[in-house]
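Blinded run. Sample ID left blank on purpose so nobody reads anything into the name before looking at the predicted structure. Input follows.
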Amino acid sequence: MTIQQSVVAVPARLASSRLPDKVLADIGGKPMIQRVLEQCSKAKGPAHVVLCTDSKRLQKLAEGWGFPVLMTSEDCSSGSERIASVADQLVAKAWDEQAHRWDDATRMQRLASTAVINVQGDQPFLDPDVVTAMATEFARLDPTPAVITPVYRLKPNTIHNPAVVKTLLAHDGRALYFSRSAIPHVRDVAPSEWHQHTDYWGHVGMYGFRADVLAAWDQLPESPLEDLERLEQLRLIEAGYTVATFLVEGTSLSVDTADQLEQARQIASAGSLVS
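Blinded prediction complete.
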């Protein structure tokens, strides 16, 4: 079944361990989460941009900015789990329907024909064209993959940085693995020269889920690799799902530390992003 509708879901919480309340941090006169929602709203294709949160404070703010909000449990351990917990409601938003009015057949049809694009709430300079491209890829591909995610070509000086997530690609563009280590390993060659022998791909922290796959997230077995690498997408790989990729020019700044927050403020101050 082809994808007929898409919706952007932005999971956000205030209880960040490394940078508390980071999504409300002021960046160039706007809270970070407002910038994320507004950037997503510039994309072409998705029917709505929806904030998914456990915070009444964020709910009030987002609704004041004109964005719909779905409330989630405080117990969600990841962004994917948070949006998965309201998958039916997200799909209903995409179709401007009420999920409780669906019969089983309608629910199955709607989930299988809707893409949910997961954008993290800490990417204030997200390129809307990447969201547009993801929606376009979902509509183009047949059969529709379970998940789509963007990748970009890494520069040599980032290949061995564990803060940069790498993607190992098959010849057809499928993601074979995600890691904080440089993959593949080039045997009998100095690590500083690996980039001369193969391409290395970085992962942009954005996922597009076929909604029926997202709705089944809580049924996926826990992944030892996910725990080791601290990368939730490995749960999908271990469960045997196809994760397709598409190429983009680069990644945008994700704010997870005080230094990255200061960097974001400098970018906004320099006028690198039109507000």
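Unblinding after everyone has recorded impressions. The first strand starts at residue 5 and ends at 12.
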